Amino acid sequence: MSVKIRLARGGAKKRPFYSIVIADARSPRDGRFIEKIGTFNPMLPSDHPDRVTLKEDRARHWLSAGALPTDRVARFLGQKEVIPMPAPRNNPKKATPKAKAQERLKAAEEARQAAAEAPAGGGEAAAEAAG
Fold first, then answer.
1. pLDDT of residue 122
2. Structural domain of residue 8, as residue ranges?
3. Has residue 85 been placed in a domain?
4. Is residue 98 situated within a structural domain?
5. By the 8 A CB rule, do 19 and 10 touch?
Protein backbone atom coordinates (compact mmCIF):
# COMPACT_ATOMS: atom_id res chain seq x y z
CA MET A 1 0.00 0.00 0.00
CA SER A 2 1.43 3.39 -1.04
CA VAL A 3 0.91 5.97 1.69
CA LYS A 4 1.06 9.75 1.16
CA ILE A 5 1.16 12.73 3.48
CA ARG A 6 -1.05 15.26 1.73
CA LEU A 7 -3.60 18.02 2.11
CA ALA A 8 -7.36 17.39 2.29
CA ARG A 9 -9.42 20.48 1.53
CA GLY A 10 -12.18 21.70 3.80
CA GLY A 11 -13.74 25.05 4.57
CA ALA A 12 -16.31 27.10 2.73
CA LYS A 13 -16.31 28.35 -0.82
CA LYS A 14 -13.43 30.80 -1.33
CA ARG A 15 -12.36 30.22 2.31
CA PRO A 16 -10.02 27.20 2.09
CA PHE A 17 -8.85 25.24 5.09
CA TYR A 18 -6.71 22.15 4.75
CA SER A 19 -6.06 19.14 6.95
CA ILE A 20 -2.67 17.46 6.70
CA VAL A 21 -3.52 13.77 6.51
CA ILE A 22 -1.95 10.38 6.01
CA ALA A 23 -3.87 8.64 3.23
CA ASP A 24 -3.64 5.77 0.81
CA ALA A 25 -2.47 7.18 -2.52
CA ARG A 26 -5.53 5.65 -4.23
CA SER A 27 -8.09 7.44 -2.00
CA PRO A 28 -9.69 10.68 -3.20
CA ARG A 29 -8.27 14.01 -2.07
CA ASP A 30 -11.02 14.75 0.44
CA GLY A 31 -11.96 11.11 0.99
CA ARG A 32 -10.85 8.40 3.35
CA PHE A 33 -7.65 8.93 5.29
CA ILE A 34 -5.71 6.97 7.89
CA GLU A 35 -4.75 9.73 10.33
CA LYS A 36 -4.95 13.52 10.62
CA ILE A 37 -1.60 14.98 11.71
CA GLY A 38 -2.12 18.71 11.29
CA THR A 39 -3.83 21.67 9.64
CA PHE A 40 -3.00 24.45 7.17
CA ASN A 41 -4.96 27.70 7.03
CA PRO A 42 -3.84 29.74 3.98
CA MET A 43 -6.13 32.63 4.99
CA LEU A 44 -3.79 33.54 7.87
CA PRO A 45 -0.65 35.65 7.32
CA SER A 46 2.50 33.66 6.59
CA ASP A 47 4.11 34.56 9.93
CA HIS A 48 1.06 33.59 12.04
CA PRO A 49 1.81 30.65 14.38
CA ASP A 50 -1.52 28.90 13.65
CA ARG A 51 -1.09 28.94 9.85
CA VAL A 52 0.48 25.45 9.94
CA THR A 53 -0.01 23.11 12.88
CA LEU A 54 1.67 19.73 12.79
CA LYS A 55 2.15 16.70 15.04
CA GLU A 56 5.85 16.34 14.32
CA ASP A 57 6.28 13.01 16.11
CA ARG A 58 3.49 11.40 14.04
CA ALA A 59 4.94 12.87 10.84
CA ARG A 60 8.33 11.36 11.68
CA HIS A 61 6.67 8.01 12.41
CA TRP A 62 4.89 7.92 9.05
CA LEU A 63 7.98 9.09 7.17
CA SER A 64 9.95 6.25 8.76
CA ALA A 65 7.16 3.87 7.71
CA GLY A 66 7.64 4.94 4.07
CA ALA A 67 5.00 7.65 3.58
CA LEU A 68 5.84 10.16 0.85
CA PRO A 69 4.91 13.84 1.35
CA THR A 70 3.49 15.94 -1.48
CA ASP A 71 5.48 19.01 -2.56
CA ARG A 72 3.53 21.46 -0.38
CA VAL A 73 3.58 19.21 2.67
CA ALA A 74 7.32 18.59 2.17
CA ARG A 75 7.81 22.37 2.40
CA PHE A 76 5.86 22.46 5.67
CA LEU A 77 7.90 19.55 7.05
CA GLY A 78 11.10 21.30 5.96
CA GLN A 79 10.09 24.52 7.73
CA LYS A 80 9.43 22.54 10.93
CA GLU A 81 12.80 20.78 10.43
CA VAL A 82 11.25 17.30 10.32
CA ILE A 83 12.97 16.65 6.97
CA PRO A 84 15.59 18.67 5.07
CA MET A 85 14.08 21.63 3.26
CA PRO A 86 13.33 20.55 -0.33
CA ALA A 87 15.03 22.43 -3.14
CA PRO A 88 12.86 25.17 -4.64
CA ARG A 89 11.26 24.13 -7.87
CA ASN A 90 12.01 26.14 -10.98
CA ASN A 91 9.66 26.48 -13.91
CA PRO A 92 10.86 29.61 -15.71
CA LYS A 93 8.82 29.17 -18.89
CA LYS A 94 5.59 29.12 -16.90
CA ALA A 95 6.49 32.38 -15.13
CA THR A 96 7.30 34.41 -18.23
CA PRO A 97 4.58 36.67 -19.65
CA LYS A 98 2.91 35.57 -22.86
CA ALA A 99 3.53 37.27 -26.25
CA LYS A 100 0.90 40.05 -25.98
CA ALA A 101 1.97 40.95 -22.46
CA GLN A 102 5.62 41.11 -23.58
CA GLU A 103 4.61 43.47 -26.42
CA ARG A 104 2.74 45.71 -23.93
CA LEU A 105 5.75 45.74 -21.60
CA LYS A 106 8.08 46.64 -24.45
CA ALA A 107 5.77 49.46 -25.62
CA ALA A 108 5.48 50.80 -22.07
CA GLU A 109 9.27 50.74 -21.64
CA GLU A 110 9.77 52.62 -24.94
CA ALA A 111 7.18 55.20 -23.89
CA ARG A 112 8.96 55.66 -20.54
CA GLN A 113 12.30 56.18 -22.28
CA ALA A 114 10.78 58.69 -24.71
CA ALA A 115 9.14 60.58 -21.83
CA ALA A 116 12.42 60.63 -19.90
CA GLU A 117 14.31 62.09 -22.88
CA ALA A 118 11.66 64.67 -23.87
CA PRO A 119 11.55 66.71 -20.60
CA ALA A 120 15.35 66.81 -20.45
CA GLY A 121 15.49 68.49 -23.87
CA GLY A 122 12.55 70.77 -23.06
CA GLY A 123 14.12 71.80 -19.74
CA GLU A 124 17.32 72.99 -21.44
CA ALA A 125 15.37 75.09 -23.94
CA ALA A 126 13.43 76.71 -21.11
CA ALA A 127 16.68 77.40 -19.21
CA GLU A 128 18.24 79.07 -22.31
CA ALA A 129 15.15 81.23 -22.84
CA ALA A 130 15.20 82.34 -19.19
CA GLY A 131 18.99 83.04 -19.22
1. 53
2. 3-79
3. no
4. yes
5. yes
